[in-house]
From TrEMBL, chain A:
Keywords: Cell membrane, Membrane, Transmembrane, Transmembrane helix, Transport. Coiled coil: none annotated. The keyword Metal-binding does not apply. Belongs to the binding-protein-dependent transport system permease family. It is a multi-pass membrane protein. Gene3D superfamilies: MetI-like. The chain crosses the membrane at residues 27-52, 86-111, 123-140, 172-198, 219-241, 279-302. Residues 86-297 form the ABC transmembrane type-1 domain. One of its GO terms (cellular component) is plasma membrane. The keyword Calcium does not apply. The lineage of its organism: Bacteria, Pseudomonadati, Pseudomonadota, Alphaproteobacteria, Acetobacterales. It is found in: Cell membrane. This is Sorbitol/mannitol ABC transporter permease.
Automatic annotation (TrEMBL), chain B:
The keyword Nucleotide-binding applies. Residues 4-234 form the ABC transporter domain. The lineage of its organism: Bacteria, Pseudomonadati, Pseudomonadota, Alphaproteobacteria, Acetobacterales. GO terms for molecular function: ABC-type maltose transporter activity; ATP binding; ATP hydrolysis activity. SMART domains: AAA. This is Sugar ABC transporter ATP-binding protein. NCBIfam families: PRK11650.1 (NF008653). Belongs to the ABC transporter superfamily. GO terms for cellular component: ATP-binding cassette (ABC) transporter complex, substrate-binding subunit-containing; maltose transport complex. The keyword ATP-binding applies. PROSITE patterns: ABC_TRANSPORTER_1, ABC_TRANSPORTER_2.
Length: 307, 367
C-alpha cells in the first residue's frame, strides 16, 4: 500500500481499482448470508432428490437399500403408468389452456361491452379464482356432479335424462373442466384489462375502414391481446404442470391411472407406495420436463414482449 | 362528386341535448371547417356524420341519400383521427391496405393504389415500418394516406394537427391545403385552432353549445361577425368591446355615445332600435389607433413585442383592458397615458342580445 501511494500518476488508477475491489468485497460479504440461505434452500432438496433417485430406498422394506444406479429411472421410464401420466399432464395443461385462454378472450371482449350490472357481473366472473383448489374440487365433486344428489344430476333428471357419472366415466375431462373453471377467471381478469387498454379511436378507425365486429376482433383486438395472452399462457402453464389437489380430491388419480398426472404419480410413488427412490427419480424427470417447457415458453413470450 | 346535407340534426345523451338542431349544406369539393371552443359539439357533429355516433333526430344526406342508418364503413367516408389511430401491429403498407382488403379489392389493384398514395405523400421509404418507428409527422401522413387510398366521397378530419409541434403543424397545414386542391374532395375538418380554420376553409361553421353561431367564408366571419360570440372567437388577439348608449341612426349609420362622453358614428343600420338602448361597440386590436392625447384615454399596462407587431395592453378608467396591435417599431412604453382612436368604419355594433347590426357596406373581400 505504501509503495502504491508513493508512485503517483500510474498508481492512482490501481488504487482506484483496489478501492472498487474492496467495495465489491464488502457488498459480497453483506449479501452472502441471504445468498447462502437461498442456495441451501434450493440446492439441498435438489441434491437430496438426486441422491435418493439413485438409491434403493423403500420405507416399508428396510432390507432393500444401497446404491441402485439408474434402476429407479429405468423402472420409471419403462413403466406404462409413467408414459400415461406424462400424456395426461400434457392433455390437462393443453386442455385447460385452450378453455381458459379461448373462453377468457371471448369473455373479456364480452365484459368490455357496456351493459346493466356490469360491475357485479365482473366480480362474479372473477370469483372462482378466489376459491382454493381443494374446496372447488369438493364443490364440483359433491355438490355439482355427484350422480345421485348433485345439482347437475338433478337438472338432468328433471328433464327426464339419466345423469352421467362424470368423474367415473370421463375422469380426466372432468378434472380438466374443474381446473379450467378455476383458471378461466384469471385469464378473463388479465385479458379484460388488456382489452380495456385498447385505444378507442383504433376501433373506430377500423369501423370507418368497414370492419364488422368479427373483423375487428380478428384484426384489431386479437393482435392487441397477443402479449397478454402469452403472459397468461406462461403463468398458467407453470401452475398447471403441477395440478395436484383437484386430482387428489376428486379421483385420486383413477380409475387406474386415467387421471394421474406426473405430480400425482410422484405423490403416489412416495406416499402411497413408500418408494422414495422411485418418487425421487420421477421428481428429477419432472424438473427436466418443466425446464424444457420453460425454455420454450420464455423464448416465445420474450419474442412477443419485445415487439 | 359528393355533397353532404344536414337537416335539423339533433343528438341527445340521456337527457342532455348536445347537438341542438343543426342544418347545413356542404357543396361538392368544398373544404368546410367546424370550429368552436371545447365542448361546443363540433367533434360530436363530425362523429355523427361519420356514423360513430347515433343521430337522435334529423336527416343526414350524402349525395342526396339518407344515410342515418348506414354503417360507418358503408357511407363512403374516410376519417383522420386526432391520435391518428394507426394499427400498431401492422406496418404502413398494411395499415393502408386494411380497408381495401375488407372491401375485397384484388391484390394487384391494392398494391398499385397504395404505392401511388405513398409516392404522393413521400411515404415510400417507410412502407414496411411499423407506426411505432415513425415520427409524429410521418404518422400523420400515414393516417392521411390511409384515408386517401379508400378514395372516399368525403374526408373527415378530427383535430388532426393538434398532436404536432407548432412548426410541423404549420407545415402540415400547408400540405393539407395543397392536397385538398389536388384531390378536390369534399372535406369536413374539425379544429379549435382558428388559424387552421381561417387558412384552410372555404366555409367555416362556428359552433357553440351545439348551436351554429354563423356559417360563412373566413373573411366574412372576420369582417362581418353575426354576433358577439363569433366576433370574440374569430381573430387573435380577440376583438375589444366598449359599452355604449345608442343615440339614433338612419340608413347611413348609427350614432352611439361611449362611456367618456364622446360620440361615434358607426356605419351600420339599426332599424327599430330605441335611443337610450345599451349597445356594445366592437373593434379589433389591429384597427384601434393610439394617440398621445384625446378622448378614451388609459394607461399602458403591458407591452408584448413580437418583432413584426407589438401588442399594447391599455387599462381603461373603468378597469377594462383594451388590446391595441401596433407596428413592431412603436416606441410607446409601459405606464404612459395614451388615448385610443376608434376609426368608425372598422367598428362593429351589437344589440343588447349580442346580435350584430347590418353594416351599410359589405367588405369587398367578404361579399
Amino acid at each position: 500500500m505504501q509503495a502504491v501511494l508513493q508512485h503517483s500518476p500510474s498508481s492512482e488508477v490501481s488504487s482506484e481499482r483496489r478501492k472498487n475491489a474492496s467495495a465489491k468485497r464488502t457488498g459480497f460479504l453483506l449479501l452472502s448470508p441471504s445468498v447462502l440461505l437461498l442456495l441451501v434452500w434450493s440446492i439441498v432438496p435438489l441434491v437430496m432428490t438426486l441422491w435418493y433417485s439413485v438409491q434403493n430406498y423403500n420405507l416399508v422394506d428396510p432390507t432393500l437399500h444401497g446404491f441402485a444406479g439408474i434402476d429407479n429411472y429405468w423402472y420409471l421410464l419403462t413403466d406404462p403408468d409413467f408414459l400415461h401420466s406424462l400424456l395426461n399432464t400434457f392433455v390437462l395443461v393443453a386442455g385447460v389452456l385452450a378453455i381458459s385462454v379461448g373462453g377468457g378472450t371471448l369473455l373479456a371482449v364480452l365484459y368490455d361491452q357496456d351493459f346493466f350490472g356490469r360491475g357485479i357481473a365482473r366480480i362474479m366472473v372473477i370469483s372462482p379464482f378466489f376459491i382454493m383448489p381443494t374446496v372447488s374440487a369438493l364443490l364440483w365433486k359433491n355438490l355439482m356432479l355427484h350422480p345421485i344428489y348433485g345439482v347437475y344430476s338433478a337438472m338432468m333428471r328433471a328433464v327426464g335424462l339419466t345423469p352421467i357419472d362424470w368423474l367415473a366415466r370421463f375422469p380426466l375431462l372432468t378434472v380438466m373442466m374443474i381446473v379450467a373453471w378455476e383458471w378461466l377467471p384469471f385469464a378473463v381478469l388479465i385479458l379484460l384489462t388488456a382489452v380495456q387498454s385498447l385505444d378507442g379511436e383504433q376501433r373506430e378507425a377500423a369501423r370507418m375502414d368497414g370492419a364488422d365486429p368479427i373483423a375487428r376482433f380478428r384484426y384489431i383486438i386479437l393482435p392487441h391481446l397477443s402479449r397478454a395472452i402469452s403472459v397468461v399462457v406462461m403463468i398458467e402453464t407453470i401452475y398447471l404442470l403441477t395440478v395436484f389437489a383437484e386430482i387428489s380430491v376428486t379421483t385420486a388419480g383413477g380409475p387406474g391411472v386415467a387421471s394421474t398426472n406426473l405430480a400425482y404419480l410422484i405423490y403416489s410413488r412416495a406416499l402411497l407406495q413408500f418408494d422414495v427412490g422411485g418418487a425421487s427419480a420421477g421428481g428429477v424427470i419432472a424438473i427436466i420436463i418443466a425446464n424444457i417447457v420453460a425454455i420454450f415458453l420464455v423464448r416465445a413470450v420474450a419474442r412477443n414482449l419485445e415487439a | 362528386m359528393a355533397t353532404v346535407e344536414l337537416k335539423n340534426l339533433r343528438k341527445t345523451y340521456l337527457t342532455e341535448e348536445i347537438i341542438k338542431g343543426i342544418s347545413l349544406s356542404i357543396e361538392d369539393r368544398e373544404f368546410v371547417v367546424f370550429v368552436g371552443p371545447s365542448g361546443c359539439g363540433k367533434s360530436t357533429l363530425l362523429r355523427m356524420i361519420a356514423g360513430l355516433e347515433d343521430i337522435t333526430s334529423g336527416d343526414l344526406l350524402i349525395d342526396g341519400q339518407r344515410v342515418n342508418d348506414v354503417e360507418p364503413g358503408k357511407r363512403g367516408l374516410a376519417m383522420v383521427f386526432q391520435s391518428y389511430a394507426l394499427y400498431p401491429h401492422m406496418d404502413v403498407y398494411k395499415n393502408m391496405e386494411f380497408g381495401l382488403k375488407l372491401a375485397g379489392m384484388p391484390e394487384a389493384e391494392r398494391r398499385e393504389k397504395i404505392e401511388h398514395v405513398a409516392r404522393t405523400l413521400q411515404l415510400e421509404p417507410y412502407l414496411h415500418h411499423k407506426p411505432g418507428q415513425l415520427s409524429g409527422g410521418q404518422r400523420q401522413r400515414v393516417a392521411i394516406g390511409r384515408a386517401i387510398v379508400r378514395n372516399p366521397k368525403v374526408f373527415l378530419f378530427d383535430e388532426p394537427l393538434s398532436n404536432l409541434d407548432a412548426a410541423l403543424r404549420g407545415q402540415m397545414r400547408v400540405e393539407l391545403s395543397a392536397l385538398h386542391r389536388k384531390l378536390g374532395a369534399t372535406t369536413i375538418y374539425v379544429t379549435h385552432d382558428q388559424v387552421e380554420a381561417m387558412t384552410m376553409a372555404d366555409k367555416i361553421v362556428v359552433l357553440q353549445k351545439g348551436v351554429v353561431e354563423q356559417i360563412g367564408s373566413p373573411l366574412e366571419l372576420y369582417h362581418h361577425p353575426r354576433n358577439l360570440f363569433v366576433a370574440r372567437f374569430i381573430g387573435s388577439p380577440p376583438m375589444n368591446f366598449f359599452p355604449a348608449i345608442f343615440q339614433g341612426g338612419d340608413t347611413t349609420g348609427s350614432a352611439v355615445q361611449l362611456r367618456d362622453g364622446s360620440t361615434l358614428y358607426v356605419p351600420v343600420t339599426s332599424p327599430g332600435l330605441l335611443p337610450g338602448t345599451k349597445v356594445t361597440v366592437g373593434i379589433r386590436p389591429e384597427h384601434v389607433e393610439l394617440a398621445a392625447s384625446g378622448p378614451n384615454s388609459g394607461v399602458v399596462e403591458v407591452i408584448e413585442r413580437l418583432g413584426a407587431i407589438t401588442l399594447v395592453h391599455v387599462r381603461m378608467p373603468d378597469g377594462q383592458i383594451i388590446v391595441v396591435q401596433m407596428d413592431g417599431a412603436v416606441l410607446t412604453d409601459v405606464d404612459t397615458r395614451v388615448s385610443l382612436t376608434l376609426p368608425p368604419g372598422n367598428c362593429h355594433l351589437f344589440a343588447p342580445d349580442g346580435v350584430a347590426f347590418e353594416a351599410c357596406h359589405r367588405h369587398p373581400l367578404a361579399a
